[in-house]
Amino acid sequence: MRLAALAAFVAALFTSSPGQANSYRDTSKPMGVVTNLDLDRYAGKWFEIARFPNRWERGCEGVTAEYGRNADGTISVRNTCRKGSPTGPAEVAEATAKVVGPGKLTVNFVPWLPFAKGDYWVLYVDAAYSVAVVGEPSGKTGWILARTPALSQAKYDKAISVMQGMGYDTSQLRRVVH
User: Fold this and answer.
1) Each residue of 75-113: b (16+ CB within 10 Å) or e?
2) Structural fold of domain 2-16+26-175
């Protein structure tokens, strides 16, 4: 029942009017993506290091995302949120993503609502595929991800620099506790 409610909530978020969510990005600045993204290397578990506030992750700590390749070419998505603290109760949301262009995916957490999709653009990934920056053109969402729950200051600063270069106001980022 909780997953069904979460799925309905996520669908409402993706289909809500643009004026209902904050934008953390100056959309007049160009936004680039990783055009040579290797989805096999990108697959696996990522820890959410920082995010822009959003309604569906309110109260979440210890957040992880796991991506996998499906036989039909789609990507499986499994997001886990720990409510209240890194050891709090887990809430899991599963989705399917489709590649729509180099470095660009659409994610759908509610398969029976085909219009309830969200953009997921990989803006940066380091050579080791250990740090990634993800966002979407409207600037309503954005994340810094890493393969480990902690990130060196130099790698964090690089991720911040990428976001700032694409018009994000990184003063609004919130660090995630692991």
Assistant:
1) bebebbbbeeeeeeeebebebbbbeeeebbbbbbbbeeb
2) Lipocalin (2.40.128)
What are the distances in angstroms from CA 117 to CA 50, 97, 120, 139? 22, 9, 10, 15
Provide the residue ranges of all domains of the chain, joining segments of one domain with +. 2-16+26-175
Does the model's pTM come out above 0.90?
Answer: no
User: Got the DSSP string for the chain?
Assistant: -HHHHHHHHHHHHHHS-GGGS---B-TTS-----TT--HHHH-EEEEEEEE---GGGTTEEEEEEEEEE-TTS-EEEEEEEEESSTTS-EEEEEEEEEEEETTEEEEES-TT-TT-EEEEEEEEE-TTS-EEEEE-TTSS-EEEEESSS---HHHHHHHHHHHHHTTB-GGG-EEPP-
**Chain segment 87-129, per-residue pLDDT in tens:** 999 999 999 999 999 999 999 988 777 667 899 999 999 999 9
